[in-house]
């Protein structure tokens, strides 16, 4: 690997979301390829530092306390970057905040590559921030700054690419690299899960856009003698309402809420399932981009039943690696579950093989494409010297 490339990764704190899994996959893939990178972990700013207190007081006086505190956090992290001993040749971020932090630091001339996982401003509005809210105005300004200062956006699907174009990002600053997972690593890490056979799984945050209620309604629509157990993994704001729905539909013997399980156990649960369900629905402008649950399920040989929303149809081949249905259609999902369970063993084994093969093909070139994205934003001299080490990026829009 060419020594002119040093990747600065803004570290992702450990959590159950897709950004952390993407980050973990990325660091593992770069290490395997011996691509030089440094992980940049910001330290928490002391709660009662003089600068924080001053920002708070000034914000109270000016009536924009929350907005000033956001700027304070960004600028504090920018000062941390100024003290880096080794200067990366390219930064990789996963959030507009991180891109703006770099743009405000002494390293502002270093190229920035950002992977787009979701459109966070839309999510903020869906959570109820008013259009005239001071914090939302600040967030919008940060997003605009990130859109302007980021050199290249990696999107996971065509939906994200189109939305960035609508925000005014030129096609030359967008490259679409579908998400990917390593099937061998997942199979090796998965932990056995002991449960009677014949169950289906939902594994996601329990929030409105995930549509978990559609899965519960689908189980209710299946005749009792044919019902599989539905295992629901995760937690979130919709959790209580989902438990109440299962009780209302008298499904307490068929729906189990398992709460949050660690990643390796979750993989084991999905590996033993007949189907993994992803019944996402549009919610106040939020559309699932590319849930890693889908990719991980297929990587361990479990077909998925997923709704036609966001970027999901780009990852699931209907009838080959899974099934697609219209968002919110619990009756269609019930039919899919019943028909899949009635398929003969050979057809189901073939679907499992097709799932694993599709994910293996996807992962095979993923690291090369990520590395080429870095190369494409390097200054001309470095880009020329690195050209032999990295293949060319495929076009986006």
CATH structural fold name of the largest domain:
Rossmann fold
State the order of secondary-structure elements, H for helix, E for strand. EHEHHEHEHHEHEHEHEHEHEHEEHHHH
Uncertain residue segments: 51-63, 383-397
Secondary-structure arrangement, i.e. CATH architecture of the largest domain = 3-Layer(aba) Sandwich
Give a quick precis of the structure.
By secondary structure, the chain is of the alpha/beta class.
Layout: helices, strands, pairs:
Layout: E1 7-10, H1 18-32, E2 37-40, H2 50-62, H3 65-82, E3 90-93, H4 96-103, E4 112-115, H5 120-126, H6 134-149, E5 152-155, H7 158-166, E6 174-176, H8 183-189, E7 199-203, H9 212-221, E8 229-233, H10 239-248, E9 255-259, H11 263-271, E10 275-278, H12 292-299, E11 304-307, E12 322-325, H13 330-342, H14 345-364, H15 366-377, H16 380-386
Parallel strand pairs: 1-2, 1-3, 3-4, 4-5, 5-6, 7-8, 7-10, 8-9, 10-11, 11-12
Helix pairs in contact: 2-3, 3-4, 4-6, 9-13, 12-14
């Amino acid at each position: 690997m060419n020594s002119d490339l040093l990747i600065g990764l803004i570290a992702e704190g450990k959590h159950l979301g897709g950004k952390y899994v993407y980050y973990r996959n990325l660091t593992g893939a770069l290490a395997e390829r011996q691509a030089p990178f440094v992980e940049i972990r910001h330290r928490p700013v002391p709660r009662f530092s003089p600068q924080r207190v001053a920002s708070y007081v000034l914000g109270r006086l000016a009536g924009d306390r929350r907005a000033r505190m956001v700027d304070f956090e960004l600028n504090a992290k920018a000062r941390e970057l100024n003290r880096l001993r080794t200067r990366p040749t390219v930064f990789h971020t996963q959030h507009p905040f991180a891109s703006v932090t770099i743009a405000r630091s002494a390293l502002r001339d270093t190229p920035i590559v950002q992977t787009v996982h979701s459109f966070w401003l839309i999510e903020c509005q869906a959570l109820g921030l008013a259009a005239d809210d001071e914090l939302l105005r600040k967030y919008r300004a940060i997003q605009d700054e990130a859109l302007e200062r980021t050199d290249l956006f990696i999107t996971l699907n065509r939906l994200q690419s189109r939305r960035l174009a609508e925000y005014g990002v030129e096609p030359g600053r967008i490259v679409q690299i579908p998400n990917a997972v390593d099937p061998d690593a997942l199979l090796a890490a998965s932990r056995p899960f002991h449960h009677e056979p014949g169950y289906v799984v939902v594994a996601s945050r329990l929030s409105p856009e995930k549509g978990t209620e559609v899965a519960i309604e689908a189980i209710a629509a299946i005749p009792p003698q044919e019902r599989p157990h539905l295992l629901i993994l995760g937690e979130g704001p919709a959790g209580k309402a989902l438990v109440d729905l299962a009780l209302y539909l008298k499904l307490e013997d068929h729906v189990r809420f398992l709460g949050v399980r660690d990643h390796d156990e979750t993989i084991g649960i999905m590996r033993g399932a007949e189907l993994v369900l992803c019944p996402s629905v549009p919610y106040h402008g939020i559309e699932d981009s590319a849930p890693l649950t889908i990719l991980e399920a297929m990587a361990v040989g479990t077909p998925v039943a997923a709704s036609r929303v966001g970027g999901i149809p780009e990852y699931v081949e209907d009838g080959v690696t899974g099934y697609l249905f219209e968002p919110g259609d619990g009756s269609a999902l019930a039919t899919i579950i019943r028909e899949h369970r009635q398929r003969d063993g050979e057809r189901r084994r073939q679907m499992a093989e097709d799932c694993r093969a599709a994910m293996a093909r996807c992962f095979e070139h993923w690291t090369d494409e990520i590395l080429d994205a870095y190369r494409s934003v390097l200054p001309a001299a470095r880009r020329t010297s690195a050209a032999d080490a990295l293949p060319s990026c495929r076009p986006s829009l």
